Amino acid sequence: MQHPWDQRLGVWWIAEDHPAAPAVVASPSGRTLTFGELAAAAHRVANALRAQGLSDGDVVAYALPNDVDAVIWQLATTEIGLRYLTLNTALAGDEFASILDHSGATALVTHVDHLDSFATAGTAGAGLRIVLGGGRSAPGGFVTEADFLAGHPDTPPADRRQGDSIRYSSGTTGKPKGIVRALDGRDPSEAAHAMAIFGRAFDFQPLHGVHLVSTGMHHAGCQSFYLGALNVGQALAILGRFDAERTLAAIERYAVTTAYMVPTQFVRMLKLPRQVRDRYDASSLRSIVHSAAPCPPEIKRDMMAWWGPVIWETYGGTEGAATIAKPHRWLEKPGTVGRPVRGVRVLILDDEGRPLPPNAIGDVYIDRTDGQSFEYRNDAELTASVHRGSAFTIGDVGYLDEDGYLFICDRAKDMIISGGVNIYPAEVEGVLAGHPAIGDVAVIGIPDPEWGEQVKAVVEPVDGVEPSEALAEDIIAFCRARLSGFKCPRSVDFDTALPRTETGKLIKRQIRDSYWAGSGRQV
């Protein structure tokens, strides 16, 4: 009997060899697809795009909800040498317009539910505008999906060649940045097989299991892992907006084996009452990968105690992956984000760019030894500013231990300097996340006339807990029992909802601004 790993992997080859295998088993629209049906749908879109005269490197932007269409359009663009641009449907109209203009998008695809954003913002230079859903009528300037696809075959397009993305950072520090890599013209089936190898690195099993999609499909991390799963032959169970209990129900119903999640999802599931958590069977889980934001060690330990040693971690950014922390290695070295992946070196440099020894904290740089590189679109100055030679930084500080495992302390811009001492908010937030009354927390530095900055915690209480001075004092005491006093907040404010991106990153810029207004400085 042929072992699954000996078979051809990648979505296109799986569609040829196993057309009846399930590719999508659940979606908000109720639509399900086999691999054969998924490939045919993508081919049809690709042929229709080709008929419009789009050229290699042209950008097709789409703002689509979590559903099957996002996968179809992603596959279609990348099999004919185009760049796809995924837009967060939660963006405001002027944000859509800014990104569309900066990207130079040739085509725009959206869903009828999101047309209002584009009606307000316009559609920049995108000459081709397609709307999905809503039947056979379309507003001015748009064509319906049915009219766009009419008459085009669902067979593979001629002269297939691999495209890529143009990705925009989540923009937590200001205006988003467009990240692009050179197109290499590979055969799409070979490129899909490479994505299968990526999935295998996280123990995604070939031609077996179901991958849960529970974060925003516009996000690069979510895309990387659902593509890694799809290309090894796992079916996707796609959810809409995240809900903690519905996620647990989906894990049981579809016998989910793999997923990509962010730490805030772990926190929200752990906050469910014990009787709710115990109601659902999660024993099918094999590999749950998280990234995008720091995961407090206590949260990760609690998840491991609940689900078993199935929690993997990866570190990097939209600019490129850097490390993997396998579950057993993390348990040996709690807090690590792992060791470098193949083709990558991690460097810790001081302010002058000199390498630092093990356990010394400095700027984290990622060096691709396989020759791959990126640039920020139309911004050579910004591209140069994050590079030292071939190595680049995404703005984090951390250290390598004596065994070469990376530990991230915090974002360089988030570091608090109080009385000349460096304080890393992520460490403090990790401790405070364990307080039973805290639903979410941001630790920031605020102006202090004597020390330069002092530590403040801004807390979102769990449902049913009322803010009070007594609770603030209890939170500070909770922290002081677990960390050195100089790291702990000197004051606590409360908020009804802290601003986070969909991937769980705190938008600290928004939180800090009100505290620094009028100080005449930002740090």
Roughly what fraction of the amino acids lie in strands? 15-25%
- What integer is the average pLDDT? 89
Assigned CATH architecture of the domain at 416-516: 2-Layer Sandwich
The first-level CATH class name of the domain at 416-516:
Alpha Beta
Domain AMP-binding enzyme C-terminal: 427-505
InterPro entries: AMP-bd_C, AMP-bd_C_sf, AMP-binding_CS, AMP-dep_synth/lig_dom, ANL_N_sf
Keywords: Ligase
Organism: Mycolicibacterium diernhoferi
Features:
523 residues; alpha/beta; Luciferase, domain 3; GMP Synthetase, Chain A, domain 3; 9-stranded mixed beta sheet; 30% helix; globular; ANL_N_sf
Could you characterize the architecture of this molecule?
- By secondary structure, the chain is α/β, with parallel strands linked by helices.
- Among the domains are: 339-414, Luciferase, domain 3 (Roll), CATH 2.30.38; 416-516, ANL, C-terminal domain (GMP Synthetase, Chain A, domain 3, 2-Layer Sandwich), CATH 3.30.300.30.
- The protein has 17 helices and 29 strands.
- Helix 2 (35-51) crosses helix 3, helix 7 packs across helix 8 and helix 10 (263-270) crosses helix 12.
- The chain starts with 10 loop residues before the first helix and ends in a 7-residue tail after the last helix.
- Mean pLDDT is 89; it is low at 1-5.
- Residues 152-173 are annotated as: Disordered.
- One of its GO terms (molecular function) is long-chain fatty acid-CoA ligase activity.
